[in-house]
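Appendix B, example 12.
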Amino acid sequence: MLVCFRAENFRSICDPIELNLRPAPRLRNHKSHVVQPIKSNLDLKVLKTSLIYGANASGKSNIVKAIDFVQNLITSSKASDEKIDFTPFKVTKTPKESASFYIEFTIDSFHLALTFEVNKDRILYERLSYIEKNREKIIYERKSDKDFHEFNSDIITDSETLNFISALSKYAPENTSIINFVSQNGKIQKDLPQNFTSYLRAAFFYFKYCLVIVFPNSRYGGLTDDVQDGTINSYTANIKDFDTGIDSLNIEKVESSLFSPSLINKIKKEIEILDQPIKFENNFREYTATKNGDEIDIHEIILKHKDIHGNQFDFSTSEESDGTVRLLDLIPVLSNSEALKNVLKPTFIVDEFDRSLHPNLSKLFLEKFLSTDTHAGQFIVTTHQSELLDLKLIRRDEIWFAQKEWNQSTSLYSLNDYSTRHDKDIRSAYLNGLFGAIPIVERTSNE
C-alpha cells in the first residue's frame, strides 16, 4: 500500500510536493478508512482513500504521471543508450536538469522507501531503505555520475560481498534501477545474498503488480487472468448495481486466424517489448492479447443483456456507452478476491475518476469501495466531482487540493490544513473558493 509520495521538478511540479497517506492523529471519524497494512507493525497506519481536487491545468494529472514515471522506471527495461524520458518544470529562466522522487510503500511484511534522482541520461542517485519501528536501514544506496560511483548498504556486512555488489551496480546500465536490474536477472540473483534480493524482489513486485494506474483512456488488460482465477464473477455482481443493463459479462476466445498476419506479428512484437497483455482494436471491437509460448491468445469481453422475456443478447464494449466502459475499467477496484485482501492490497490510482460517470454513480462507487473489507487496498483519485466532498462520506485528511500557483507550478495541500467547523458544508466552501484549487474566471453580466 502507498504510504507517502514526493516529487520535485517534474512537468508542472517545480518545488517538492507531497501526498501523505498517513492519517491525521486527531481525527476520529470514519475509523474504518484507516488500515494497518502490516500486521506486525501496530504503529503504521494508512488511509484507504484520497481524493485530489483542482482546476483544469492545476497539475492533478501530473501528480499521477509522476507516480506512473516511477513505476515505469522500476519495471521497464531500457536499452543502455536509451534516454530517460521526462519533462522538467519549464516555466523558469533557470531550469533544473534533474528530477527527484520519494515513494514509501508496504508489501506483505515489508515497509520500504525508495528515493532517487534522475536526469535524461542516468540515475544520479538511488536508495532503497527498509523501515522498522521508525528506524531506517539502507538496503542499498547508489551514487553515480560520469566520473564517480559509490555503493553503500547497511544490511551487507561481508566486505567481499559488498565489493561484488558495488562492482555489479557500477556496470549496471546507468538508466536502469538496481531493483529492475537484479529482479529481472535470475543468474545475478543466485550470486547475491537472499536477505538482499528479497527486498529488491518485493519492491519490484509492488511496482509491477500492486500499483495500478488508470488514466482517462486506460483500458484494463488482465481479463484472461480474471477469468482463470474466478475474479470475473465478482465483477459481474458489482456491475449490476450501477444500472447499466448488463446482466453478466464473460470472456470469449477469438481465433487468431480472423486477424491479418501483419496485425498478429505487430501484436507479438508489442507483447515482447512490454512483457504484459495488451489491448488492441480491430473493426471497432476491443480485444486482449496474451502470450502463450510462441503464440498469442486473443480474447474479447462480451457483455450480456436480457430483454423482458429473459432472452440474452451479446454486446461488445464498442457497443456500450462511454460511462459503462469506464465502469468496466474501474470495477476491479471493488474486487473481493482473497488475493487482493490478504496478499496484494493493491493501490489503485485513477486520473479523472468521474470521467463519463453520473455524479450518483461516482458516489455509489466510492461508497461501495469504502464499505468493502479494510484489507481490500487503496483508492486514490483525481476528480472534479464536488458531490463527493461530504464529510459524512470521507475524512478531512482524505481530501487534497492541487493549486496552480502564480509561477504556473503545482502545489498540493490537504483540507486538514484548514481549521473549519466539523459541520461546515465543505462542498459549497470549495466551490466558493475558500480552499483555492478552483479556476479563476471572469463572468459576463447580462444587463
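The radius of gyration is 23 Å. The chain has a mean pLDDT of 88.
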